[in-house]
Amino acid sequence: NLLVNGLTRGAEVGEQAERLAAWLTQRPESPLPKVALAQLFISLAWAARGGGVANTVGEQERRIFFENIDRAREILLSLVSGGAAPPKAYELLFTVAMAEGWEQQRVMPYAQQLLRRDPTYADAHASMVLKLLPRWGGKPDDAQEYAAWVADQIGGDAGQEMYARIAWGLYPYFYMKTYFKETRFDYQRIMAGYAHWRKRAP
């Protein structure tokens, strides 16, 4: 599935690129092949960069990374400015914002747009809070404050559940014993949201 799976081998890249080209030709007005193409570029970018810290990335790998991120950004900005972008486009745009180190005031209008269009798309909010972590240029309270803002905008039990789901999305990036100290998330609010989440989808 091009909207979900990353790319690992050169042959797969060529095959998926060919399929995307055919899909775009058949459905030039559809946002879905464009989202898939943006994800292809993002996958290629991270595959070139690797998972090391910035000072371990070589010059060529850095160049390939930013070239592909740039391509993805152009596609995604055209989609979200068009008014009919699928929510996956926002998730990917926030990944681009993380990669390029956007300031919060640059990325927040797109988060507000997402909240108006598809407020309960948790994967996009999780992508946004990841971008807001200090390791990607955010301040210590930014991620938690964003999650609380989203939850308050949604309101009620659904808002509490969203807070818990956003918090859950950050678990892989922290040690459990330091999670709450580092993220500043509210334990009681997470548990209240998790209780509603389990009740709704046991």
Topology:
Layout: H1 10-26, H2 31-49, H3 59-80, H4 87-100, H5 104-117, H6 122-131, H7 142-154, H8 156-170, H9 179-183, H10 187-200
Short key terms for the protein model shown above:
202 residues; mainly alpha; 71% helix
Tally of DSSP β-strands = 0
**Which spans of ≥5 residues are poorly predicted at pLDDT below 50?**
1-9
**Largest pleated sheet:** none
Measured distance between first and last alpha carbons = 27 Å
Radius of gyration: 18 Å
Tell me, what's the shape?
globular
Beta content = under 5%
Oligomer: single chain
What's the helix count? 10
Order of helices and strands: HHHHHHHHHH
Helix coverage percent = over 70%
Average pLDDT reading: 86
Counting helices, strands and paired strands, the structural category is mainly alpha
Structure, described:
It is a single chain. 71% of the residues lie in helices and 0% in strands. By secondary structure, it is mostly helical. α4 runs parallel beside α6. It is globular and about 50 Å long. The two termini are 27 Å apart.
In short, what is this structure?
With 202 residues, the chain is mainly α. The chain is 71% helix and 0% strand.
